[in-house]
């Protein structure tokens, strides 16, 4: 059994790393959407005491991390995580505003704007050596 795994591992490894840049960005978008849904609905789990919402959040977190790892095979780690983090933070904040009436103060709004600006700068002018 171990010999067969070793024989097929190089084939599987090359297949896993051969995704295109477009596929990487698709995985990143899926990670962002599932990250937003899992973080946005964490409050409904009431400290993971409700089974249905807890399973929903956990499943979305697993999908999110899987998609982030796939995106990082073709997109640099810093770019991937910064983009994921900025979109997730901003969207979950907007989710909190619309669903839970949690309005950020002026400093929170400035902070969100700086996060978005930072990611735009990173993705536009950031260079990877």
Shape: flat
- Report the sheet-strand fraction: under 5%
The helical percent reads over 70%
Distance between the termini: 41 Å
Specify the number of helices. Answer: 5
Short description:
The chain is mostly helical and 129 residues long. The protein has helices spanning 2-16, 21-40, 51-71, 77-100, 106-125.
Describe what you observe in this structure.
It is a single chain. This protein is mainly alpha-helical and about 130 residues long. About 80% of the residues lie in helices and about 0% in strands. The protein has 5 helices and no strands. It is flat, with a radius of gyration of 18 Å. The model has no long low-confidence stretch (mean pLDDT about 85).
Main attributes of the structure:
single chain; 129 residues; mainly alpha
Which helices and strands, and how do they pair?
Layout: H1 2-16, H2 21-40, H3 51-71, H4 77-100, H5 106-125
Helix pairs in contact: 2-3, 2-4, 4-5
């Amino acid at each position: 059994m171990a010999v067969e795994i070793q024989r097929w591992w190089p084939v599987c490894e090359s297949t896993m790393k051969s995704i295109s840049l477009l596929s990487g960005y698709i995985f990143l978008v899926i990670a962002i959407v599932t990250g937003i849904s899992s973080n946005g609905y964490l409050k409904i789990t009431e400290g993971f005491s409700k089974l249905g919402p807890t399973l929903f959040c956990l499943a979305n977190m697993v999908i999110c991390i899987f998609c982030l790892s796939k995106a990082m095979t073709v997109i640099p780690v810093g770019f991937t995580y910064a983009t994921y983090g900025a979109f997730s933070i901003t969207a979950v904040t907007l989710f909190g505003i619309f669903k839970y009436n949690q309005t950020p103060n002026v400093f929170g709004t400035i902070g969100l704007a700086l996060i978005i600006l930072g990611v735009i700068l990173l993705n536009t002018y950031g260079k990877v050596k």
